[in-house]
Amino acid sequence: MAFCFPLRLSMAWLIFTVSACAQAQLPAPVAEALQLARIPANATAFLVVDALDAKAAPRLQHRSEAPMHAASVMKLLTTYAALDLLGPAFSWTTPVYVDGPVRDGTLNGNLYIQGQGDPQLVMERLWLLLRRVQSLGISRISGDIVLDNGAFYVPDQDPGAFDGEPLRPYNARPEALLINYKSLVMTFTPEPGGRVARVQYDPPLAGVQTQDSVSLSSGTCNDYRAGLKADFSDPLRIRFGGALPASCGEKIWPIAYADPTSYAPRAVQGLWRSMGAGLEGNVRWGTVPSKLQEAKPLLEWRSPPLAEVVREINKYSNNVMAQQVFLTLGREGGVGTARAEQSRAVLQKWWETHIGTDDLPLVDNGAGLSRTERINARALGQLLQHAYRSPLMPEIVASLPITGIDGTLTRSKARAAGSAHLKTGSLQGVNAIAGYVDAASGKRYAVVALINHANAAAARPVLDALVDWAAQDK
């Protein structure tokens, strides 16, 4: 019989031995991967349980009661609760109002666009909304286009406060009238046999000077973004001091616009004018007058159904879309102004009703882009089991990335490619997965892995090893 601890040992030897013993309780491939990544077992939590049978003993359970950072895995709670509370066919509407008559193609007054939280009012759909306006006989507006953002209350915040990356689209703040995720997409297309690459900006932003081409250079396409030497410091001027290697071919670079407050007015005005329409006034933030809200709107633009939105959120881990859904949960009956604290209360009540009063998760913004959110592996396992027994199971499973196939798991190295549907999550010091794995035995397991450690970025082989181990069950 082997013993983990000698009778006398130094403190350093004790720490090493405790860690080694803890890892010895894990499946060998997982323990070996942890050792190679230099991550101690006490910085992890694992759970593998039958997805259907909540009473079955876990196949693997390691530190499952420890509260941990789960990063974007927290989106599972937000999206599943939303599907249950709102229904998979729920959609957002964006009403459009006018306060004057239309004569000979001119609206003699203002046009109002009232945001209600639509997470997918991307450029193409905004273009279609404005095209609908034009189809109703409006080709010129004598007044202003007024954008109403009052359905959500979101405190002002520095877009770079979370990680010092203000131009990363994932740091975009939610808004009731969220347009194109407040992102500018730049497409660099080399001219055939030419010396320059043309630059296209979508959507066109009114009042912003842009550079329509960059030089082509020789060499390999490595860090082409650094080579372009972009200058985004002035929101009214975008310039490039470098060149694009011709070997890159066409490249697409999305960024968060440097002045997010002015983004929506600039995008609406730029797109409206690019469609050949006239505007005598300005595009500005404002409020739809109460007398107009009591009347029938000119039109109501409708979003895709929630089931499609949830798929986009979970497959590609879209933070701002998740926060849009989160805040929508806080609007009582679809009216009033939603606040984060209301949404947290809704999620807590839902959890207590459907999962229980133990292991309550700590929710911040519902997207996992937070340093305060916490949940344990056991709670995530219970959530996955509840979802699997629910009529909503097809929607939630179909929203999860598939190992080696799509979404955030396209590059997964797990040998069990195609056998797992898993939500991924990563932040500095955090790496996590939670979802379902189909085993060789025919069982479907709910699998959770949470890793909180400075070396978490090196933990992908650990997660792959766990998925493969679960899939090999016979």
Walk me through the structure.
By secondary structure, the protein is α+β, with helices and mostly antiparallel strands. It folds into 3 domains: 22-88 and 308-471, Beta-lactamase (3-Layer(aba) Sandwich), CATH 3.40.710; 93-158 and 261-303, D-tyrosyl-trna(Tyr) Deacylase, Chain: A (3-Layer(bba) Sandwich), CATH 3.50.80.20; 169-259, no CATH class. The protein has 13 helices and 21 strands. The chain has helices at residues 11-24, 28-37, 75-86, 123-135, 224-228, 260-274, 290-293, 306-316, 319-328, 340-354, 377-389, 393-398, 460-471; strands at residues 44-50, 60-62, 93-98, 102-103, 106-107, 111-114, 140-141, 145-148, 183-190, 196-202, 213-217, 230-234, 237-240, 243-245, 251-256, 278-279, 283-286, 299-302, 420-427, 430-438, 444-452. It has a 5-stranded antiparallel beta sheet, with helices on both faces. Strand 19 (420-427) and strand 20 form a beta hairpin. Helix 2 packs antiparallel against helix 13 (460-471), helix 3 (75-86) packs antiparallel against helix 8 (306-316) and helix 3 packs across helix 9. The two termini are 29 Å apart.
